[in-house]
Amino acid sequence: MLFALVCLTGIPAAASVSGWHQFQKDPLHTGTTSDAAPGSDPVLLWSMQAGAINVPPLVAGDLVYVYDANGTMWAFDRRCGSMVWRNETSPWFIQSSTPAYGDDMIFAAERDGDLHAFDAATGERLWKAHATDHALACPVTYHDHRVYVGESYCRAPARYFCYDENGTMVWSSSTGVAGAYEWCGACVVDQYLIHPISSGNLVSLFRENGTMRDIISLADDQNISFARSDVGRIRASVSHHRGYLYVASEYSQEQGYIWKIRLDCGRFIDSGWSTEIGFSTSTPVVHDGRVYVGVGEHGCSGNLVCLNDSTGDVLWSYPVPAGVKSSPVLSISDSDSDSGGNSGGDVHIYFTTATANGSLYCLRDCGASAELAWAYNPPDSGYILQGAAISDGMVYFGTGGGYVYCIGRRGDLDYDGEISATDAVIALQMAAGSESSAPGADMDCDCRVTSVDALVVLRDAAVMTQHATTFMKNGEVN
Ligand SMILES: [Ca+2]
Ligand SMILES: [Ca+2]
Question: Residue 454 CA: which ligand is closest?
Answer without folding.
Answer: 2
